[in-house]
């Protein structure tokens, strides 16, 4: 007959989630000693309740600590001074105190220049430039934003191009197109205005004529168009932000086509496709577009989780297209830059991203060479954005 110790060890092995794990199975182990059934049933029920409390949780709650023991090299300041080509500092928040703190935070990150893509146009643009560049002349660049009001008017194309030229004369360094073009911008009849609408051709041409870049955000992550089911890797984001789900037209492919048609139609204009054109998950396809269109660059705002999960392919991509990639972050959160630095600069393995709804997976460092880092961090930006102070950056 098994000893009491053997019986208890066997009962423990049958807790919920291990083996049979049922109350009946535990009682069976002690059947010769029927006097202990009430005590044993209570103990088994307690074990079952405690175990259920421990194992029943939502996907949002599940956030395990890694047991992997690997070298760690957190990076809180970039190896080289860098230009962040994708930032947003809205005019309403700008004050002398805010801008002073902004520059202190930039210094801590080794950010030499911040490009504010939310410059607006006309008087608002001038006020924003004064708040930023008036206080720190060489630490900021500001991009203008067009208006689509009156897009049906016969003089809209010429008027909008002329306003952009005036914005450049007032101190803007480029043009930023938000994703509302292609999604929500409509004409007077309520029709969607596509990215490739010919009424915008004079605007793209004017940027090429003036020698300033167009940083354009078109579309959303492709997963936003997929069914919201267990196979969708952005399920958590769509659960937390249901308004981000997309269906029908315009489709992801439709927006990519409209955007690339603009790039092809205006080869004399330099375009920067925001967010790696939302193709960081398909680097072969993105590389095909870069091979076809030498006037296009990409920036990495809000997509570092994709290069970081494919370090070998991403490193090869960065090396091949080192003249076509720009550093960008998007939302202003200083401590989130640390993950960008770590992915780009180190060979670390299996470290966390900072926002689970974007990436529930771990990241790996690309360990880029100094030559590639210099281009991504500042040399490419200095080449395409006029007026940046080269004295802020090391030679070589």
Q: Kindly state the mean pLDDT as a whole number? A: 90
**Number of helical segments with 4 or more residues:** 14
Weakly predicted, low-confidence segments: 10-37
Annotated CATH homologous superfamily of the largest domain: Metal-dependent hydrolases
Note the run of SSEs as H and E: HHHEHEHEHEHHEHHEHEHEHEEH
CATH topology assignment of the largest domain = TIM Barrel
Q: What profile does the largest beta sheet have? A: 8 strands, parallel
User: What is the CA–CA distance across the termini?
Assistant: 81 Å
Look at the structure and give the CATH class of the largest domain. Alpha Beta
Structural Rg: 28 Å
**β-sheet strand percentage:** 5-15%
Number of strands: 10
CATH architecture of the largest domain: Alpha-Beta Barrel
Physical arrangement of strands within the biggest beta sheet: 1-2-3-4-5-6-7-8
Helix fraction by DSSP (H/I, runs of at least 4) = 25-40%
Structural class computed from helices and strand pairing: alpha/beta
Number of domains: 2
């Amino acid at each position: 007959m098994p000893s009491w110790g053997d019986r208890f060890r066997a009962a423990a092995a049958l807790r919920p989630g291990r083996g049979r794990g049922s109350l009946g199975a535990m009682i069976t182990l002690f059947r010769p000693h029927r006097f202990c059934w009430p005590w044993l049933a209570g103990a088994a029920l307690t074990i079952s309740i405690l175990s259920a409390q421990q194992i029943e949780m939502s996907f949002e709650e599940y956030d395990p600590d890694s047991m992997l023991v690997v070298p760690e090299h957190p990076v809180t300041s970039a190896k080289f001074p860098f230009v962040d080509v994708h930032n947003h500092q809205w005019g309403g928040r700008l004050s002398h105190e805010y801008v002073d703190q902004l520059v202190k935070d930039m210094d801590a990150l080794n950010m030499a220049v911040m490009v504010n893509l939310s410059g607006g146009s006309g008087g608002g643009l001038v006020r924003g430039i004064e708040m930023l560049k008036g206080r720190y002349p060489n630490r900021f660049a500001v991009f203008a934003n067009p208006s689509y009001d009156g897009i049906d008017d016969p003089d809209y194309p010429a008027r909008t191009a002329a306003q952009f030229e005036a914005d450049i004369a007032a101190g803007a360094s480029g043009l930023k197109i938000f994703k509302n073009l292609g999604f929500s911008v409509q004409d007077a009849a309520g029709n969607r205005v596509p990215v490739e609408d010919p009424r915008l051709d004079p605007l793209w041409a004017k940027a090429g004529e003036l020698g300033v870049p167009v940083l354009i955000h078109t579309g959303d992550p492709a997963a936003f168009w997929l069914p919201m089911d267990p196979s969708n890797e952005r399920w958590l984001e769509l659960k937390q932000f249901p308004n981000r789900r997309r269906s029908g037209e315009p489709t992801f492919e439709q927006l990519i086509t409209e955007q690339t048609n603009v790039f092809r139609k205006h080869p004399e204009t330099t375009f920067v496709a925001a967010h790696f054109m939302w193709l960081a998950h398909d680097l072969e396809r993105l590389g095909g577009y870069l091979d076809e269109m030498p006037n296009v660059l990409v920036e990495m705002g809000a997509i570092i989780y994709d290069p970081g999960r494919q370090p070998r392919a991403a490193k090869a991509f960065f090396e091949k297209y080192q003249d076509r990639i720009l550093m960008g972050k998007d939302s202003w959160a200083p401590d989130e830059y640390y993950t960008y630095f770590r992915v780009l600069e180190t060979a670390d393995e299996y470290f966390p991203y900072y926002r689970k709804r974007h990436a529930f997976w771990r990241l790996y460092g690309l360990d880029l060479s100094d030559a590639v880092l210099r281009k991504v961090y500042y040399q490419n930006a200095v080449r395409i954005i006029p007026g940046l102070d080269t004295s802020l950056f090391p030679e070589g």
